[in-house]
Amino acid sequence: MVITINRIFFLCFLCLWSTCGSTSGWNDFSRDIGHGFELSKMNSFQVCIGREGHGLLVCPSFDSGDFGPVTAFAFTENHLLVKTLGAKPSIHIPGHYTSDPDRYLFFVIDKHIDNSSFYRPTGPLERAAFQAHPAVPDDIQWQRATRFASDPDADVSWFDFLWLLAVAPAVFGWPVLLFLSPVILFFAVPWMFRRFGRKKTG
Length: 202
Known about the structure:
By secondary structure, the protein is an alpha+beta fold. 35% of the residues lie in helices and 28% in strands. It has 2 domains: 5-23 and 156-201, no CATH class; 28-144, no CATH class. It has a 5-stranded antiparallel sheet. It is elongated.
């Protein structure tokens, strides 16, 4: 198959289209994290934790800047501990806030609340105040706030990669897979090692 400039433009369009799709919804999710709580992502900033069927308990606001997206959580016997990024003014949108990766804030949530509509978690707390809270143990087993509980390294960007893998042969012909094979090995092999190796080692 002859590689023409039109085919190149078409492939670039498909790749950019899939990237736009990932920023406008493919990365959003909602999943059960246990004990009646759920983790949800509405956009890159609003990664939240709430009570299933009773609304959100920890969710950043673009307007307030009190804290940023949830990055991790952990359960104790009686509480749900939540770690978030900080928030800082956006340099692109005046009056809005964005994530501050150089700062962390924390929340403490009672696991046994009856009515989350009137319940307010303790926080956001700075690290020292969080560690001093009586409900916080010395050793915390944080879980990353990701889409998949069984594979914290999984990322929806794999959809984009598989999309490219599907459309490239259609545009350029199957020989193009020879050029993509190093990319496949570079990304797929480490991912498979992390996923299946972790299951074997526990």
